[in-house]
């Protein structure tokens, strides 16, 4: 019989994952015994095409493609499509569950879209991408250096992805014990493909961070967005990723001349021209996870 976590791992998209999380939040006493097992595979019959276990819904003498549970999830998933498109998933392994989880599976922070507690040390969250910084800040505020473990962060995916979000969860679970539990670390996967081949990002120094370091990077991305217009950000990226150093030198002075003084000071203090390309790419990836700072 399928458990709650089995159902979560059968999600193909972020919208299906979010729908399943919300379903279990409303019905915490889910019991798989209520569903009838499907018929064995044959030329004419078989179980649900999605879960591959439970019986398809029957209408008269004909059977639909999915079981009752899968049909419910798929029917409601489209309503969360826009929300999940800009979602981020966190799989956490910690020595003790954060305080937000201690009164059940709900999380007190307003930015959480859905949550699931797997056991005494593992949890799953789904947030809006641009609420990630606020959630991490709250976590650090409540726990400081007391919380130890690993938070693996990756984006939600849609129907056109080459993998499923359930597969991504399985892979993050396999990697959760790769680091010692001596501090709180973050592993950030900017794209789903990074989960399957993390060694390159690890060698480049853009995969694993202490939580305070990762929050600092998010704050840099926030300042970056505040000081450069989108077109200026694109021009800067093109310049920093040029392979011809002489060509970059030629265009740099012209580019700097069009910037505000705040932007010039920011780039000079950061010495961004000396950054390796992976670090530049990480900065741009993180701009999708922050809002413009509030003024006043």
Quick overview:
Helix content is 43%, strand content 16%.
Offer a few descriptive terms.
296 residues; alpha+beta; 13 helices; Alpha-Beta Plaits
- Overall shape: elongated
Instruction: Output mean pLDDT.
Output: 90
Number of domains: 3
Helix content: 40-55%
Structural class: alpha+beta
Using DSSP, what is the number of strands? 8
- How many strands, which pairing sense, and closed or not: the largest β-sheet? 6 strands, mixed
Order of helices and strands: HHEEHHEEEHEHEHHEHHHHH
Task: Explain how this protein is built.
The chain is of the alpha+beta class and 296 residues long. It has three domains: 4-79, no CATH class; 83-218, Alpha-Beta Plaits; 220-289, no CATH class. The protein is built from 13 helices and eight strands. The protein has helices at 4-9, 14-26, 68-77, 81-85, 132-143, 165-175, 193-196, 199-204, 211-227, 230-240, 245-257, 261-270, 277-286, and strands at residues 56-59, 62-67, 87-94, 112-117, 122-128, 149-155, 184-188, 208-210. The strands form two sheets. The protein has a six-stranded mixed β-sheet with strand order 4-5-3-6-7-8. It has a two-stranded antiparallel sheet with strand order 1-2. α6 links the parallel β6 (149-155) and β7 (184-188). The longest helix has 17 residues, at 211-227. It is elongated and about 75 Å long. The relative contact order is 0.11. Mean pLDDT is 90; it is low at 103-108.
